[in-house]
TrEMBL record:
The chain holds residues 243 to 606 of 606 of the full protein. This is Glutamine--fructose-6-phosphate aminotransferase [isomerizing]. GO terms for molecular function: carbohydrate derivative binding; glutamine-fructose-6-phosphate transaminase (isomerizing) activity. The gene is glmS. Homodimer. The active site is at residue 359.
Amino acid sequence: ESYDMGGHDTYMHKEIHEQADAVDRALRGRIDDRFSTVHLGGLNLDARDARAVRRVKILGCGTSYHAGQIGAQMIEELARIPADAEPASEFRYRNPVVDPDTLYIAVSQSGETYDVLAAVQELKRKGARVLGLVNVVGSAIARETDGGIYVHAGPEVCVVSTKCFTNMVVSFGLLALHLGRTRDLSVADGKRIIEGLRKLPGQIEEILANEAQIEELAKEYAEAKSMMFIGRVRGYPVAREASLKLKEVSYIHAEAYPASELKHGPLALIEPAMPTVAIVPNDELLEKNRAALEEIKARSGRILAVAHQEQEKADHTIVVPKNEDELDAILMGIPLQLFAYYTAKAMGRDIDKPRNLAKSVTVE
Ligand code: AGP
């Protein structure tokens, strides 16, 4: 991949369209079909170390923190290790308890974000084992961590991260599979996840082929002053990232909430002028998510669903291909990257360089 725009009007558009190739690169040479696992050369974590991990704590900022939230869920689901993600900026200011049985993972596109680097340095001072999940090879965080995974997204120029987010989440999927196979994940489940990972590049192409529908929807919703994004469990970090993407690039105010929390307050905001984007995967929570759509419709709220099939209660549905339940979050945010891009375009925003933002925040 080069810095040439290659016919795209912005780097954001170019980078969204590079995602199938980027994911293919993240998978290449890492899958081991013989043992239904993956090889992650730079991890520096043998099977004995992996089995000794009692908790996983993931640290990152912004989009990378959201990738970490999806990663934590994948690690809990596939490896059954308690895992959570926290903004690195918060973590380092709260004098956290540093536990020798916890595996810490710093996640960063640039590998230079000061808040993440400072958290890594503090953890190292306290004797923790810290891995990096980083895009830029040889960056400060890659150098200071004990090992890790390069996400291989290629150069990302647009301030707003798209392909790197996707490759981070794919890399967390690989790590979760690797940790799972050193613990209780069966050969059959390992095989199932590998098959799911292999489907991703083709499914990304399918989503991007639906660009014209997304462009039309974006033009329609660009009139909104504010938007709500909801999701449940696997869908919640997808909603958070999609809401951040829209805010960053279009400057439309957006809030992300767990769908289950709507009735505890934000339902008061729902009215025709406040559309909701709902993440509705075909998983064990489908009926619960449909109930949330009904609650919104009952308050005359407009709904744009991202789902695996048309949603009757939604005004519009963007249908995405189904993968394994544990991997669906990788795909469901991709149409909403395009949605953010086309909304910003309709509003005449400076897409690659949104106001007040820098690609990497290397100061405190
Ligand atoms: C991405 O859309 C943002 N510009 C921002 O949230 C970014 O993810 C954050 O600053 C962290 O950057 P990093 O991944 O380079 O550490």
